[in-house]
Design brief:
339 residues, 31% helix, single chain, alpha+beta
């Protein structure tokens, strides 16, 4: 009886480990609780590693040896498979290549309102030589302050903002998304369709007025909390629709990892026709949220995605600003026009 129970528990544990390790195979990457477990893949790998050790210690008991060893084997396999996948996506590249004449650098940073301060944002963007900066949860006024400071530092930017619930006085800055674009990329305007985009938090779609240059999308999807799961899926679906087979740069806080995006890719794209640049430059496993956890245990939910018209040549997740006030880390990517 006990042996049968042990076999049943082991089989159930193996099934659970398989779903946690590769939820998209079972089409569960956007379903509770697997959406959250997939988003914390690094932590899941660490937990499976700890369980492996615990079960191996329990195997010292003759009465539990068979059960403990089988559970240890499942835990080891789950930990190794998850670790290999993280390794393929990249545990972290720390430098960017030199910026050339055709290079475009983009930065996304959810600044948690003005928690980081406009001066820190401006100094970081200038230091990283960013041509496009997406600032979810940043009000237009803060964006204007950042632009003024960047201009004083010799790096002027145009400010674009999409806001929800503007009739509410003193609403949270999460209801605004600000996008800064260098004048060297041309004149841009946020299109009216942005207001009918993501459900609860705004995303800004900026189109080049002169017809040249990429479409730039500053994204902010709602977090996949239990009450907002359908809104979250709707946000990801809408963002994927913006990634057309053209000239697109999409960046921001997606509140989703590359695993969660599996159902929204087209062709060889990760989100619509766009491809994740961090995965292709060795930073796909580096957690951008929360700053309270080490990068390997955190969740990479902030992304820069581009259409095939761009080649990412390097990326970096900035960890030196973990105490700046935001619970997100900035992600900076260098892009080159595809041949």
């Amino acid at each position: 009886m006990l042996r049968s129970l042990g076999v049943l528990i082991t089989v159930l544990f193996a099934c659970a480990a398989a779903v946690v390790t590769w939820p998209q195979f079972f089409h569960l990457e956007t379903t509770l609780p697997f959406a959250h477990l997939a988003a914390l893949r690094g932590a899941a790998v660490a937990i499976f590693a700890v369980l492996s050790v615990l079960f191996l210690l329990l195997a010292a008991s003759r009465r539990m040896r068979g059960f403990a060893l089988s559970m240890a084997i499942v835990s080891i396999l789950a930990s190794v498979c998850g670790g290999i996948l993280l390794g393929l996506r990249g545990y972290g590249a720390a430098t960017l290549p030199d910026k050339g004449e055709t290079s475009v650098r983009v930065m996304t940073w959810n600044t948690a309102g003005n928690a980081t301060g406009s001066q820190t944002i401006a100094q970081t963007a200038v230091a990283m030589e960013a041509d496009i900066v997406a600032l979810p949860e940043t009000a237009e006024g803060v964006g204007e302050e950042v632009a003024v400071l960047m201009r004083e530092l010799g790096h002027p930017m145009w400010v674009h903002t999409e806001a929800y619930n503007e009739e509410v006085d003193y609403g949270p800055q999460a209801w605004q998304t600000t996008l800064l674009i260098s004048p060297e990329l041309g004149d841009y305007a946020v299109i009216d369709a942005s207001s009918d985009g993501t459900t609860m938090l705004p995303s800004a779609v900026a189109m080049p007025i002169d017809g040249d240059g990429p479409i730039v999308v500053a994204a902010h999807a709602v977090a996949p909390q239990p009450n907002y799961m359908e809104s979250w899926r709707s946000d990801l679906r809408w963002l994927a629709d913006q990634c057309v087979d053209g000239n697109v740069i999409m960046l921001g806080d997606f509140n989703a990892t590359i695993d969660n995006m599996a159902a929204f890719g087209a062709g060889d794209g990760d989100m619509g026709w766009c491809r994740d640049t961090a995965v292709r430059t060795g930073n796909g496993a580096v957690g951008t949220w929360p700053t309270s956890l080490p990068t390997i245990l955190g969740s990479p939910i902030d992304h820069v995605l581009t259409s095939a018209t761009w080649n990412p040549t390097g990326s970096v997740v900035l960890t030196n600003l973990d105490d700046a006030g935001s619970d997100h880390r900035p992600l900076v990517v260098q892009l080159e026009p595809a041949p």
